[in-house]
Amino acid sequence: MSLRLAGRLARRELRGGLRGFRVFLACLALGVAAIAAVGSVRHAIQAGLAEEGAALLGGDAQLEFTYRFATNDERAWMDQTGTAVSEVVDFRSMAVADQNAETQRALTQVKSVDDTYPLLGSPVLKPAMPLSAALGTHQGLPGAVMDPSLIDRLGLSVGDRFALGTQEFILTAALIHEPDGAADGFGLGPRTLVRTEDLQASGLLAPGTLFSTKYRLALPSGTDLQDLAVEARQNFEGTGMRWTDARNGAPGIAEFVGRLSAFLVLVGLSGLAVGGIGVSAAVRAYLSQKTETIATLRTLGADKATIFQTYMIQIGVLSGIGILLGLALGGLLPLLLAPLIEARLPVPAVFSFYPAPLAEAALYGLLTAFLFTLWPLARTEDVRAATLFRDALTSARAVPRGVYLIATGFGLALLIASAAWFSGSARLTFWTAGGLVGALLLLSTAAYTVRRLARLSTPSARGRPALRWALSAISDPREGAASVVLSLGLGLSVLAAVGQIDGTLRNAISDNLPDVAPSYFFVDIQKDQMPGFNDRLTTDPGVSRIESAPMLRGIITQINGKPAREIAGDHWVLDGDRGVTYSVRPPENARITSGEWWADDYTGTPQVSFAAEEAEEMGLKLGDQLTVNILGRDITAELTSTREVDFSNAGMGFIMSMNPSALAGAPHSFIATVYAEEKAETAILRDLAGKFPNITAIRVRDAIDRVSGLLAGIAAATSYGAGISLLTGFLVLIGAAAAGEPARRYEAAILKTLGADRRRILFSFALRAALLGAAAGGVALLTGVLGGWAVATYIFDTKFSVIWPSAIGIVLAGIIVTLGAGLIFALRPLAVRPARILRASD
Does the keyword Methyltransferase apply (predicted)? Predict the structure, then answer.
């Protein structure tokens, strides 16, 4: 028979409405909506970054230099190219204030500016005033503005004095909004804004201290940014200059948003997988109800293909409806919630309907619907007309013909390839897909095991009728135990994995402080200050260890005479400047893995020792020539050794270490890490900051709190995504409970006829639900822990430990959710009269 006939039959079947497909539509729509919403928000942020790129950057283009100011030639090119140039200096320092006979100190990210700042936009100050007035002279001292949180930390009020280094300032206003703040990236301290010329006597911008300069350019209208970027890189090749322009004014935020949204899309795909189980169960239940219809068609001569096509068309139409509902929901939600989302974003966003994320979500929805409906539909082909009248769908073989297996494999490969393409992370996609497939296999095995154990345990429950009834029901394949364990278990698995990963990352950052991590990082220590610095610490019984090293920053520009990225690709070491030190001998905690360290008196051509793991990842080998730009000067050194560098303990570690004579002429400062008891930290900071006001102290615990806050936001976002998976699983659970209500009515009628009271029957229903929930939660706990371990070990390369509060919560959630759904759909069966039910079944 033709496809046209199948279409006519499908249209007539659809006249019966959507009864039985509510869960089908809800599962598909939720999964598609989650992916569409995440994609729409991502595109809104990207559009905002593109539209407001110049304002975010503070100019049409920016040239950044590491720990030096632009040379005369570089500045001349900028003045000739742009219509206006603004110089910004960015560095960390300690803000010091004397309040009520006590000295308060806090780490701050200082931005010093010139008179042309800002080229675009304007800062918002409280009280309101022009920035030029706020940074002008007040009471004979230069003015400054601060982030409100820093003002509160120091106990300051407008008009109070504070110091940066050896220079005093007057606080003139609170900095409410910084127009180019998004382009500055992550900082360890709140912002302080001053004029650069007012720092001349502060001792904070001495040669060798750690700062960066950014030159923002306003360009003539119509300037081709691509051509200008090429010209700038050609003119200043090898100087360590980094170029940014308005095409991507906040690259760090753009990259972060892209990676987070890609991860959330993969979490959304997990939700679709959960929904797919509900889709499969709904199709299976629907076809079971159509036994007589299919049997009639087969009797009248309908062949296998016609029956398959008839119901494939029906499911395809319903899938289209579910996908359209999901696209509408996913596209509208960001628009409706735009004010709330914009209020929490650090960057502008342009909310609108974006076709690309909607198309991506639709593709995922179509492939998911195809994968999870193909097998239930394929089973109808292998059933004879006579056996269809005898509940053929339960007796048909579980694995369909080879052609359907091939089609399933092709659909799965296409889904994974699409996810890898759209997310931009093939590795994360394959890990997610592997985790989902593994979880489904484990959950399927668990569902079979639960039914098998229930059947074996039923005889041993004699004398406990409620338990016996519950076990007997669980062992019946028609009761939907597999759907409950699969759908709810997978949703809980995603949530469990997110909880384990979040807890593991937090533990990796905060565990064993201060026993493992140092109490303070001190930077910008001048060479002549090191003796006094060490004297103060070595005599303190609260200090257990001090490590110090000369500190420079360098950018790897070439490897063996070729651009570094041509050799090492997009490795993170090449993303910006990296720490460079020098020493006569290897550090005490370093182990040489290959090559040899230079001799104590070596003064020949520069040599470099590289971190072993990073060298292997970048494809470096002994004898390679590395060109490193340090303070605008290219130093080409031979790679003569590699060594282990442990960055996980928050101690001191350098990617590159050179022989001392290679860096003899470069101005630099020292850094130090101090390991001390917590009770000694306040006195250490007070004494060192008082004696050496130019030194910046970074308290490790404060840095950890700041990073933990960022992790909390990421964990919240991923938990919301995992919550969609759990909600979808709950819908599947509701559907399974609703589908099983007729069987429970019949069961209740039989039990009442045999003398059972309502309380005992209700207890049996509750016990059944609780056992299934515990099974789903237990398997979810196992898969979540395995997923968390895999991500922690192979992606984050950190130690894993089970987060037991989260783990126990998952099991309890499974029991509570299943119990709640089971009891809701147990009320009507308990209220029926046995006679009416039993007469209707005759």
Answer: no
